[in-house]
Amino acid sequence: MTYLLAKAAHIVSLVVWIAGMTAVALSLRHPVRTFMKPLRAYDRAVTTPAMILAWGFGLFLAVRGGWFPQSWLGLKILLVLALSGVHGALTGKLRRATNTTDDPVTGGRWYLPIGLVLVSGIVLLVTLKP
Fold it and tell me: Which of 16, 95, 107, 115 is deepest in the core (most CB within 10 A)?
């Protein structure tokens, strides 16, 4: 029962994390000045804690499942580290966009596709466990 609850919490955390990252990526591509500060507050209060919870529940599941010796988990962890890096880059761009009175920060065009490719790879690894 604990395993199933942790699995459900992991999935919910992932959905919240990825949704928040998607919102930030889209708002940086199509900036609306009045939306940036509330989005930054949401990212700090919801998206970043969801990422931390996803990591925690994921590591718990890996320990309980005994998956650390399996190579697919190592690759998954690398992809999740990369996804965490994309989240950090997006958060930094969002912070700069809210702190400037000039035009919003540009150059975030590739964050959304990169994030979606990483998430797709993670889902494939977890589902297939090659």
Answer: 115
